[in-house]
Design a protein that fits this description.
The protein is α+β, with helices and mostly antiparallel strands and 240 residues long. It folds into 2 domains: 93 residues; 138 residues, 2-Layer Sandwich (Alpha-D-Glucose-1,6-Bisphosphate, Chain A, domain 4). The protein is built from 6 helices and 6 strands. Strands 1, 2, 3, 4, 5 and 6 form a 6-stranded antiparallel sheet that branches. A hairpin with a 6-residue loop joins strand 4 and strand 5. The longest helix is centred in the first third of the chain and has 30 residues. The chain is elongated and about 75 Å long. The termini are far apart.
Length: 240
């Protein structure tokens, strides 16, 4: 009984630390470095506890119901934490370590109004360069400009509505330059990724270029590419 309780308490502690490692950084309780350390070591602890719990379920299967229940709960909690940690590790290894994604390599949409919000950001607003472009081409060949057969202002309006519906912080709308800038705050760690949309008239309709860049971190785990892909797909669907 004591062993089962210890496993349960340890699993609760590991789960709590894993979960609040991100929220602690988001609420400015501790630094990003400490948050990642707590995340890493709580994940290690959870994996170890999950293994011990799984083995214990077999050996304690004929014990009192409460004992078995404690061990099963410990396994479920740490199993979820372990699965989450392993998933993100796999994501990190399967995508390039870049954090600046654009639909236009030769002339990436620029952050203008956003510059004042990125003053203290570790990642500067300027585009990363050809090496980043090369890695993006290899990893995300589907990221490309969108052409919509509709009036430019109509497309801009639809994009702004979509930005608001997604809950992003709308920073600027410049109709003269055909530019929309916004920020999305990610859950858990509260990381902020900045987005700029550029609209231009062409012979085929309105061309939409989009750029998404993280303020912190070397790798975005593919988040910026998924954001652009989903946003442009949804925007196109509104005129399909």
């Amino acid at each position: 009984m004591i062993f089962a309780r210890i496993l349960l308490y340890l699993s609760l502690a590991a789960t709590f630390v894993f979960l609040f490692s991100g929220y602690g950084y988001r609420w400015e309780i501790w630094s990003l470095g400490l948050a990642f350390s707590l995340l890493r070591y709580s994940a290690y602890a959870a994996i170890g506890i999950a293994v011990v719990s799984l083995i214990s379920i077999w050996f304690l299967r004929k014990s009192r119901f409460q004992v078995v229940l404690y061990v099963i709960i410990a396994f479920i909690l740490t199993g979820i934490v372990s699965g989450t940690a392993l998933y993100w590790q796999h994501r990190a290894q399967s995508v390039p370590a870049i954090h600046d994604i654009t639909t236009d390599f030769s002339n990436p949409p620029e952050f203008v109004a956003m510059e004042r919000l990125r003053v203290d950001a570790p990642n500067p607003p300027e585009y990363e360069g050809e090496e980043t472009a090369r890695q993006q081409r290899e990893a995300y060949p589907q990221i490309e400009p969108l052409i919509i057969d509709a009036d430019l202002q109509e497309v801009m309006d639809a994009a702004v509505v979509l930005v608001v519906q997604r809950g992003w912080d709308l920073v600027a709308i410049n109709r003269m330059d055909g530019r929309v800038e916004a920020t999305e705050m990610l859950p858990w760690f509260g990381f902020k990724d900045d987005v700029v949309l550029r609209f231009a008239e062409t012979g085929e309709g309105t061309r939409v270029d989009m750029r998404s860049k993280s303020r912190v971190g070397q790798s975005d785990l593919g988040v910026n590419a998924r954001r652009i892909n989903r946003f442009l797909r949804e925007l196109y669907a509104r005129f399909d």
